[in-house]
Amino acid sequence: MFRKVLIANRGELAVRVIRACHELGIEAVAIYSEPDRTSLHVQMADEAYLVGPAPSVESYLKQDRVISVANKTGAEAIHPGYGFLAENGEFARKVEEAGLKFVGPRAESIKMMGDKTQARALAKRLKVPTIPGTVRPISDHEEALKTAQDIGYPILLKAAAGGGGKGIRLVRDDSEFGSAFRASQNEARSAFGDDRIYIEKYIQKPRHIEFQILADRQGNTVHLLERECSIQRRHQKLIEESPAVPVTPKIRKTMGEAAVRLAKAAKYENAGTIEFLMDGNGNFYFLEMNTRLQVEHPVTEAITGIDLVKEQLRIAAGESLQVKQGDIQPKGHAIECRICAEDAGAGFMPSTGKIEYLFEPNGNGVRCDSGIYAGVQVYPYYDPLLAKLIVWAATRDEAIDRMRRALNEYQVYGIETCIPFHIRVMDNERFRAGEITTHFIEQEKIMTSDGEDEALNFACAVSSTLHHTAENKRSALTNGVANRSSRDNWKMIGRMEVLNKQ
Ligand code: ADP
Ligand code: ADP
Ligand code: MG
User: Residue 189 sits in which domain range?
Assistant: First the structure.
């Protein structure tokens, strides 16, 4: 096993990897940008090095600088996390050329699966169902329009190099095509430096189901069951769970085998994810492969008992997988809520500022993977993901109740977060019934009553707090248990102010 590993990332993910390193007796080296000097991952690492100013292109994405820090400190491997350099094949190659181990797949696998059209072509060859559409990128407007007409509206324009929901545009008819094509190309060019676009038939109201893969260098490949990630905004996930409600043991077997077949064909090594869409009739279609650790990996860890980051490090160190496919069975149910610095009531607008007060939930079956602490500043330069709240319980119903309890305990003051949004989802009947699709947020109008009229909201907040306080007193007296269905923000701020004055 390695003695020292550099983590080329920040935030909650860097903290997650540092913890795995420490459990394996590995020293963890952090890198940071100027504004991240005081961040949690820097404090938790054994060594930390400045790599540049705030913009990630001048710091976290400076490939040569990151590699030279690793060499200087005597690190033997680089863990890229997700985002930043994680899916950059050129970086993986440079790391290996510098005599270091890249904790991830080989550069060729990253390049092949990172091009979504190549990945689609591979899936087709392997007879894994794919979404109807093009298998090669189209740059000519006329040709693209003709193809869209042949496939039949509605269609999605998607970036071949895409990721993080960027470059995706819905087109319902010919009149929308021109501006959507330009917008998609522009977004792809600025996000990925690559404006190649491909076209897919738009699947109506699908569910997002993905399979976690682990593969070692010796050629052993297993899947660690599925995750459902249908609760999305802007094509990005907000809530994930495992097992997935619509996945029966039979479907799991078919989809899992398809995922393993794809990973094997790509000579895949380390952790990766095969994403699928599923329609209302249980048909599934290959969507893409993510050649890295996934944000939502903890739900898989919770139901399988396998530590994915430790497995990544073991595989990178050349060890072979100990687990066999037949041994992997789901135990209980896990849910993750992404805690983002976003005001869900204002269209998930990013929120920045200083975290004045923080209380992270805890207790039976609760895991909080966090990258923040009270007093830290949240800047606009990076991804808004602050932390992840994961719960595990014996059943899905119990997991939802536990998540609601944990979200009600969660207190973040100073910036807006999407915690109120998550509470509403946990309270939603359709969510509880497992009737979800990627359109859940719009369809259920989860946050639309918020942020419309600030004065009215303020008045409502005051009156509901007064009512709530009175109710709590009454129910505490009558039942002995206070009804904690909403969080006592006003009371908490009042108490903090009193304490500050003392
Ligand atoms: P998941 O791990 O479930 O796929 P996301 O799709 O939200 O989660 O992406 C994970 C993180 O990586 C996010 O912070 C996102 O902004 C970032 N990301 C994903 N793909 C890319 C990419 N190709 N280029 C840059 N950032 C990306
Ligand atoms: P990214 O690389 O940005 O993660 P994906 O191809 O994985 O892009 O798609 C992200 C999300 O966009 C999916 O989870 C789904 O909600 C939606 N989506 C993508 N392709 C389609 C499609 N053909 N039909 C319907 N929804 C789609
Ligand atoms: Mg995706």
Answer: 132-201
Same domain, 109 and 216: yes
Ligand nearest to the backbone CA of 184: 2
Q: Is 292 a catalytic residue?
A: yes
Crossing angle of helices 116-125 and 107-114, in 10° steps, is 90
Output the average pLDDT for the chain.
Answer: 92
Model-wide pTM > 0.85: yes
Active-site choice (292, 338, 367, 404): 292
Binned at pLDDT 50, 70 and 90, residue 412 comes out as very high
Q: Tell me, using a 6 A CB cutoff, whether residue 279 lines ligand 2.
A: no
How far does the centroid of ligand 2 lie from the alpha carbon of residue 336, in Å?
20
pLDDT of 253: 97
Instruction: Show Cβ contacts of residue 421 under 8 Å, excluding neighbours closer than 6 positions.
Output: 238, 344, 345, 446, 447
188 and 115 within one domain: no
Q: Whose CA is nearest to atom 23 of ligand 2?
A: 202
- Expressed in angstroms and rounded, the spacing between residue 46 Cα and the centre of ligand 3 is 33
Q: Would the CB of 87 count as within 6 Å of ligand 1? A: yes
Q: Return the structure tokens found at 434.
A: 């497992």
How many domains is the chain built from? 5
Q: Which of 160, 177, 201 is the last residue of a domain?
A: 201
Which residues have CB under 8 Å from 233's CB, separation 6+? 348, 441
Same-domain status, 356 and 225 = no
Residue 14 and residue 82: Cα distance in Å, rounded?
A: 10
Q: Which pLDDT tens digit goes with each residue over 345-361?
A: 999 999 999 999 999 99
Shared domain check, 68 and 17 = yes
Give the Å distance between the CA of 452 and the centre of ligand 1. 30
Query: Span 133-153, mean pLDDT?
Result: 94
Report, as an integer, the average pLDDT of 74-100.
97
| Residue 473 confidence (pLDDT) | 47
Q: Is the four-CA dihedral 242, 244, 248, 250 of positive or negative sign?
A: negative
32 and 111 fall within a common domain:
no
